[in-house]
Fold:
Amino acid sequence: MTGPMRDDRAEIVDLPGDAPVEVEPTLAPRGRRRTLFGEGAQIACDNLVKIYKVADLEVVALQGLDLLVDPAEMIAIVGASGSGKSTLLSILGGLDVPSAGRATVAGHDLTAMGRRERTNYRRRVIGFVWQQTARNLLPYLSAVENVELPMILDGAAGSLRRRSAIELLAMVGLRDRAGHRPDRLSGGEQQRVAIAVALANRPEVLLADEPTGELDTDTSGEIFELLRQVNREMGTTVVIVTHDPLVSEQVQRTVAIRDGRTSSETLRRTSLSDDGDHQVIAEEFAVLDRAGRLQLPRAHVEALELDRRVRLRLEPDHIGVWPDGHREKDR
Ligand code: ADP
Ligand code: MG
Structure:
């Protein structure tokens, strides 16, 4: 043997004149497969940081955000106003670049894209739906022309283009409105066209920033249902940013962002109750990042008046957290 040999569990190293010695590998614990962060994910955000500089002021919009989304998954991102949701979505949409950290979407490294790749990325890989209906559509083009526009920019041939645009409008339920301009459509219809526009070049990922923010409850429900249909039928990965509690009831996974970081995830699954009914069970989890950090829910922190330092104790199957008990002395 000339050099160290490697397998997944241990390294065998030949020492000159000695019997082989087993050396613990340093990279991964025994028995666990070594995986790269984000391997197999469609969207991977690794410790994303975004700092906006306004005059002399720095605003930290994202502070070490981690997020993984699987191919063909549909998730909702929720969080208070100012928590960094739109910042995250514009980074994922290739409209803005992070100050630090990494973001990969469908194999594209968003932190290392040149101009050409970025343009191509925005045209083909992702589709974007904004809250403001006016931002999604050109007012002087008909619905079908709006849907054709991204295809024209991508160089698609004329006859195919029209057929494909009509197909998409049919899918969003607006086949008979194809010739109407946006001002002749309702808000909900405009967002349906916007979804068709976003899907024009059959992107792998659809990003929607509060797509129902300007719609009433019933219409919002219809738009969510349409997004679910897109996810189901076209296999498009869908990420919806929203304030709307309705959405989180319609997706399997809701990610909550607090202060520029993912703080909790709610997973939903259906199970059969004793009397044979399907019931939806939602479970909320705190998110543990790769550095071992987690955010305690504000209510928990306040209930025990936790402040600055806490005691931790490792038990066989959980970790206990206590107030530090030295507060008076410290002050
Ligand atoms: P959300 O979409 O969750 O409401 P944003 O991502 O829009 O949050 O904003 C996160 C933080 O970053 C806020 O404090 C906001 O004021 C700030 N911010 C967002 N965009 C800019 C910008 N272009 N310039 C300066 N500050 C910004
Ligand atoms: Mg926003």
Q: What stands out?
A: Residues 85-86 surround magnesium ion (ligand 2) (CB under 6 Å). Residues 217-234 form the longest helix (18 residues). Confidence is low (pLDDT under 50) at residues 1-32.
